[in-house]
Write a structure and sequence with these properties.
Elements: H1 19-34, H2 39-45, E1 50-59, E2 65-76, E3 82-89, H3 94-110, E4 117-123, H4 131-145, E5 154-158, H5 164-177, H6 203-218, E6 227-231, H7 235-246, E7 250-256, E8 259-262, H8 269-279, E9 289-291, H9 293-297, E10 303-306, E11 325-327, H10 336-344, E12 348-350, H11 352-355, H12 358-372, H13 378-403, H14 407-426
Parallel strand pairs: 3-4, 3-5, 6-7, 6-10, 10-11, 11-12
Antiparallel strand pairs: 1-2, 2-4, 7-8, 8-9
Helix pairs in contact: 1-3, 1-14, 3-14, 4-5, 6-7, 6-12, 6-13, 12-13, 13-14
Bound molecules: nicotinamide-adenine-dinucleotide (NAD).
The site of nicotinamide-adenine-dinucleotide has 21 residues, from helix 7 and strand 7.
Length: 431
């Protein structure tokens, strides 16, 4: 934990106190100062609208009943229905979900989407559940959340540990409880066959590359021929690698839980994608040299894309980062102290709330298509994604240069400014 402001939470709010939420609040405070935000607005933005904690009883395969803890934090409805993923992970707790819900609020705002922010999660290791147990858990969680979600209320999506199948079960449960009428707009990230959109699977990785191209252009580096390093080779990292490679960049190193691989001439990404399909991990890819994840982060390169976990660049390694540009595919991969160090060292950060926004942007498209019952082709999805993410980048970049602040604070300031205007227009009920 990098912030030690003991006044951040009162005794009655201690259930919300956690490192991720504290970081988000610190960023909010700084952004608020930059735009001279109304203190009443800022005070409201520091706390979620509604936190829901649910005990979820689940029939296990051995016929016993286990009770899991689930959460949904509906942070802000100012700009539209709540939107944010559902995470299944053993470390999920209320402060983490609240911090992620705050980040979703700022992300949706800076991206200009007509959506509020939320996040959900269940404290469970999903790899230890059978398919039936995971379905039972999801259906009961969806049922308990029933009164609070819906296409005009709150629209969940997949996150760590959940996928399109989880969303299909969620959508089916909600639909059954609405009299059996299909309600595809209640969740996004669904399979195509039941109202999912084309282009969702690769959206976050493609958005990372659109953002990287803009950042490189601003810094006078040609993307084609540049040297890229990517931490994480899951959904986000592997697609970011694929699209970087297709645009002529040299992806010189990638990593996953098994470790990192390096080739100074550029890895053969199409072959690596095939290799990972068979071997599940990047380790041992022919023609590559093994590195540790720590070494990968400190490689000399043009672009470093952290696409794995939180807090990978922190006070311990920020001085050793040699990349010219960091594009945050993951949520919160750079700590607040590291952000300041990198900014001081002239290393440009394209922050997570913009750089990994591709996922929620295309989720928004899915919701729109479900409501219209009219579906777009993939080219249209990709083009509209490029327009939205580029605009958010350009607006924040302008602010970053005008005010001489780091890009994270600039992005947050744009987000807070939009929320402030909307909150003041809507006013406080009752006044
Ligand atoms: P994923 O589970 O598909 O992939 C995660 C990857 O990180 C895997 O390759 C895993 O092996 C690797 N990894 C795990 N621990 C590691 C470590 N210690 N060192 C190096 N690599 C490690 O997850 P994802 O969907 O690609 O998400 C990655 C990040 O992006 C998360 O922070 C997530 O919240 C964020 N994100 C994802 C999306 C999306 O649409 N998938 C959208 C926005 C943000």
């Amino acid at each position: 934990m990098e912030t030690h402001d003991n006044d951040m939470f009162t005794h009655g709010e201690s259930h919300l106190d956690g490192p991720l939420y504290r970081n988000a609040l610190q960023n909010l405070e700084e952004a608020g100062k930059v735009i001279n935000c109304d203190p009443n607005v800022l005070a409201r933005l520091k706390r979620p609208r509604r936190t829901i904690a649910i005990s979820i009883p689940v029939r296990m395969d051995d016929y016993s009943v286990k009770v899991f803890q689930g959460f949904r934090v509906q942070y802000s409805p100012t700009l539209g229905p709540y939107k944010g993923g559902i995470r299944y992970h053993e470390k999920v707790d209320l402060p983490e979900v609240a911090g992620l819900a705050a980040l979703m609020t700022f992300k949706n705002s800076v991206l200009g989407l007509p959506l509020g922010g939320a996040k959900g999660g269940v404290s469970v290791d999903p790899t230890k559940l059978s398919r039936t147990e995971k379905q039972n858990l999801t259906r009961r969680f969806a049922s308990e959340l029933g009164p609070f979600v819906g296409p005009t209320k709150d629209i969940p999506a997949p996150d760590v540990g959940t996928d399109s199948q989880t969303m299909a079960w969620f959508m089916d449960t909600y639909s059954q409880e609405q009299g059996g009428f299909a309600q595809p707009g209640v969740v996004t990230g669904k399979p195509i066959e039941i109202g999912g959109t084309l282009g969702r699977t690769h959206a976050t990785g493609l958005g990372v590359v659109f953002t990287a191209e803009k950042a490189f252009e601003k810094k006078g580096i040609r993307f084609s021929g540049s040297r890229i390093v990517i931490q994480g080779f899951g959904n986000v990292g592997s697609h970011a690698a694929k699209f970087s490679h297709e645009r002529g960049a040299k992806v010189i190193a990638v990593s996953d839980v098994s470790g990192a691989i390096f080739n100074g001439d550029g890895l053969d990404i199409p072959e690596l994608l095939e290799y990972v399909k068979t071997n599940k991990v990047v380790k041992g890819f022919p023609g590559s040299q093994a590195l540790t994840n720590a070494e990968l982060l400190e490689l000399d390169c043009d672009g470093l894309f952290p696409c794995a976990l939180e807090n990978q660049i922190d006070a311990h390694n920020a001085e050793n980062i040699k990349a010219k540009i960091v594009v945050e595919g993951a949520n919160g991969p750079t700590s607040n102290i590291a952000t300041k160090i990198l900014h001081k060292r002239g290393i440009f950060i394209a922050p997570d709330i913009i750089a990994n926004g591709g996922g929620v942007i295309v989720s928004y498209f899915e919701w729109v298509q479900d409501i219209m019952s009219f579906f777009w082709d993939e080219e249209e999805v990709n083009l509209k994604l490029a327009t939205i993410i580029t605009k958010a980048f350009d607006n924040s970049y302008r602010f970053h240069t005008e005010k001489n602040i780091d890009m994270r604070t600039a992005g947050m300031a744009m987000a807070v400014q939009r929320l402030e205007k909307a909150m003041l227009l809507r006013g406080l009920y009752p006044r």
